[in-house]
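User: My advisor, Dr. K., asked me to get a structural model of this assembly before our group meeting. I'm new to this, so sorry if the format is off. These are the inputs:
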Amino acid sequence: MTTNASYMAIWKVVRTIPRGRVASYGQVARLAGLPKNARLVGVALGAGDRLKLPWHRVMNAQGRIALPPNSRGYREQSRLLREEGVIVTKGKVDLKRFGWKAGGESPLLD
DNA sequence: GACATGACATAAC
DNA sequence: CGTTATGCCATGT
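Assistant: The format is fine. Below is the predicted structure of the whole assembly, which you can bring to the meeting.
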């Protein structure tokens, strides 16, 4: 009951993150209806289809890449993000600017 | 079934 | 901006 259904819910949310925007693990977990499973989101991403999921748009609550610096994924993530116009500096992004506000659109930025 | 892990979050120093 | 401590919970040993 936990696994597959939860993963699907998570993937669904992740697929919803707009280009050039990022969301935190906790945020995704909440939107997926799994408030306490921020950690599971990471697992779900790893289990998902990296070619079909915008996994790179998910980072921790501090807007920081949650992968070991220098690791392949780390570089890949920053690359993909920059490719979408997201400014990544020292492995982190400004959530004030690129953070995704589900539902409510942000009239000022962007 | 106890124990250790981890792509997390939040709060307090 | 950094470190420490706690809470959480699915997974793997």
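One thing worth pointing out at the meeting: The two ends of chain A are 40 Å apart (CA to CA).

User: Perfect, thanks a lot.
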